[in-house]
TrEMBL record, chains A, B, C:
The lineage of its organism: Bacteria, Pseudomonadati, Nitrospirota, Nitrospiria, Nitrospirales. It comes from Nitrospira lenta. InterPro entries: CaH_exchang, CAX-like, NaCa_Exmemb, NCX_ion-bd_dom_sf. This is Ca(2+)/H(+) antiporter. Keywords: Antiport, Calcium, Calcium transport, Ion transport, Membrane, Transmembrane, Transmembrane helix, Transport. GO terms for biological process: intracellular calcium ion homeostasis.
Length: 357, 357, 357
């Protein structure tokens, strides 16, 4: 079993039984929130590792596809749980938060951590440019419905949902095309970016074991997400926080913890290409894959989700996309650029903290 | 005559008599709209070719100036027709649509078409950077009056018109300076961009013939534009579309068709510099030359045109300028970048479709 | 004394006694405004020179720090005078105007002046990229409170002030980090940018003399600023201008005059790195040092200053930051890029002129 548990974060697995115990005992929701959040962190990491091991048993093409699609499974599961509860604002806040967290906090911390060791770190400029452009495209997908909502509020909810659905389809198609680009027609640009099981310095798991671990972990994440989402409202109330702040900042931190530790580790090994790929790729998946899938899924639940984010969320994502684009455009990073990303995150977090419900 | 008719699009010329016949017969406005639109497409192409032939008879300086100034004569004629009818919203929508169509659809389609044949295509980075910066300047010229309108609505129409006129003058001066830059002081940067009659693989027409064709074609475009503009309102009503959608999407497609086919052709010949120059140059002419000229002309008609575009138009142009800037900044393109531009266009078109009148 | 007076601007010193005489004689406030404004121009230049001489007597580290911190002392003194008068709108307008003036007018004029002599001028791309990114960070610091104000206006003044204070702290920390970056960890990037006393072609002043001049000049600027600020309101009224226009355009021109002449001079000597460093560095100091310091100082005066700028100010700064970022990103400049910056400044000035109070 030593091959399943490889990170010091795995000690947090102890929170799985604790979270369940708290729930059963109808303990303080704050405890349930904290325990389930702590439990998801190592599970999200294991999900990533299990996916990587699984991919070593399938062809490179399918493998990359699996990797790319399961990369944010934890976020997707959390969001689905919130969606089922009808907490649309929390769903959208967790998407926003996950994007912000990845491109500002994860990437910023990576650049700081790497930049303290190396004067400057290089990464593939073409791949970075494509990432920035796709981020901007994703931001456009957020801006348009929000702008529509504020300039044509009288069009009614039905039309806004129809438009959201169509824009979700465009985003989904762009995601598919971006996979075609990065996995097939321009694969070589991303050559240095795959970090498979071997990078983790271990023998790949067997196929069955990979699938078994994936199944167990996914189920556990689903259970923990149920508890987490159920505890958001009373927790926010108790801490005097808004649900949006909890979704944008706290839940997103939980969902991104695995990417965070991996990206920072890679940056410290001077593999900035990987760190950038993880942070930006993860954001892109949230915006171009998870968000559309949630819109589609919402129709199954009978409560159509629209893509109309709050003005502040839209502005925050747009700002972040531009800052990352500016910082990444030269294909180099240093600690100060990382500090700037973290600084922007701090200012946004301050504003989200003070924003009313 | 074979030298005048060179494109398969020329078969659409048959719609000239048809459009007139429909108008005389007071036929369904939908038919008039469609026929006059189809007729303008080849005429706009011929206008461009005639201009190029004419320029081979004058000095390089005057020739480039002619080329640059007549390049969007079709759009200008259509807009003047709408202006005379007092359809200010349609005028502005056709400007917006022409800019969006050129930098998103024409450039995007060119990048896709070229990118399917070539893994990556290069274009002059300095010229592209100048183009992006000028586009941003043009966007600023749209943003400022709109923002003024929404933050100081109480200042009244007279002041908004005065401000629009002054901003139009600044834009017009910037256009003049940009010609000075590209045709004189930094001509060499654009060396690869001129595509004159010889590129079309034919002998230049005589001077008289060029002028004659120009005169006839311009007159025909003016007549067709009258019919087109007169049919916009009933057509929009009949199709359940808003006039803005018709202006931004349909009329703009008609006016841009010639640029579209030329740019795609150039991209497929791996002359991405030319394709970029056509798409961005055309947008810049619309914003920095056609728009100011329309403002000036509106004073002759006694109904001053302001430059206050709707928030959605301003946002759409600004978004597009940034996306194109991001995509073009590295001086390279590939099919995915083209697909992104088309994707942004699709999302904007969806929103314009649903926007109320 | 010939070493203190080195610039033809120094003849303007004659306005010091004149301004005082006008004030004592209770002359037309327009005269007081004009005279004190003219007096500040050479004083700001002398302040800069005295600082440079002083730094030749301390270690390089402390020297650079002094240089960086005292660089905008004139603006700070003017703003403090306005702050003490409770003219919060004027304080903020002068900050906005100083940023716009530096990155659009000073940099634009430098690029034009240099570009008329040299076809293209290069500057350090990494340093320029860092400058652009920091400018964007500063813009974010303006955008967030304004956006908060407009989407959550009901939160009340107390919360807006608390948020402004926290954001001011973040900006201040980022300024400190940027000094650490440019003066210590990545000093070599800015190697060509220091222009010390020797650049002025003279022997450094003695330590005592430097301090004495600094003290006298600072006192004189403070006195003149009192007169200037006191005359803003009646002057604006008399000229039919708003206080915001006077703050953004006129007062800022006065505060920036010294940077202006130095930067243009450097550009004409093909030292574009220096010109860029002066213009952008000065803007960054205003946004990341002067603005936070004013917020902190306002608590001493018992009238807390918030960072909520008007939508037009926020938009103007954001637009300018993007235009400069686009123009500077390739590490090259030419006269047309300079003309664009001036063009954007002209359009913004037109709008500010028409904006209501």
């Amino acid at each position: 079993m030593k091959r399943i548990f490889t990170s010091w974060l795995d000690v947090l697995l102890v929170f799985i039984p604790l979270a369940i115990a708290f729930e059963v005992a109808k303990a303080d929701p704050l405890l349930i929130f904290a325990a389930s959040a702590c439990a998801i962190i190592p599970l999200a990491g294991m999900l990533g590792r299990a996916t990587e091991h699984l991919t070593s048993h399938v062809g490179a093409g399918v493998g990359s596809l699996l990797n790319a699609s399961l990369g944010n499974a934890a976020e997707l599961i959390i969001a689905l749980a919130a969606l089922r509860e009808g907490l649309h604002d929390v769903v959208k806040a967790s998407l926003t938060g996950s994007i912000l967290g990845n491109i500002l906090l994860v990437l910023g911390a990576s650049m700081v951590a790497g930049g303290l060791k190396y004067e400057r770190q290089k990464f593939n400029q073409t791949a970075a440019g494509m990432g920035s452009s796709l981020l901007l495209l994703a931001a456009v997908g957020l801006i348009i419905p929000a702008l529509f909502h504020f300039t044509a509020a009288d069009r009614g909810v039905a039309i806004e949902r129809e438009m959201s659905l169509e824009i979700a389809i465009v985003l989904f198609v762009m995601y598919g095309l971006s996979l075609l680009f990065s996995l097939r027609t321009h694969r070589h640009l991303y050559a240095g970016e795959s970090h498979d099981a071997e990078d983790l310095g271990e023998q790949p798991w067997g196929f069955r074991m990979s699938v078994a671990v994936l199944t167990v972990v996914t189920t556990l994440i689903a259970v923990m997400s149920e508890l987490l989402v159920g505890a958001i409202e009373p927790t926010a109330h108790k801490l005097g926080l808004t649900q949006v702040f909890v979704g944008v900042i706290l839940v997103a931190l939980v969902g991104n913890a695995a990417e965070h530790s991996t990206a920072v580790l890679m940056a410290m090994k001077n593999k900035m290409d990987l760190a950038y790929g993880i942070a930006v790729g993860s954001s892109l998946q949230i915006a171009l894959l998870v968000a559309p899938v949630l819109v589609f899924a919402s129709y199954l639940f009978g409560t159509p989700l629209d893509l109309i984010f709050t003005p502040f969320e839209v502005a925050a994502v747009t700002i972040s996309v531009f800052v990352v684009g500016f910082v990444a455009i030269d294909g180099e990073s240093n600690w100060m650029e990382g500090a700037m990303l973290v600084g922007v995150y701090a200012m946004l977090a301050i504003a989200f903290y003070f924003l009313p419900a």
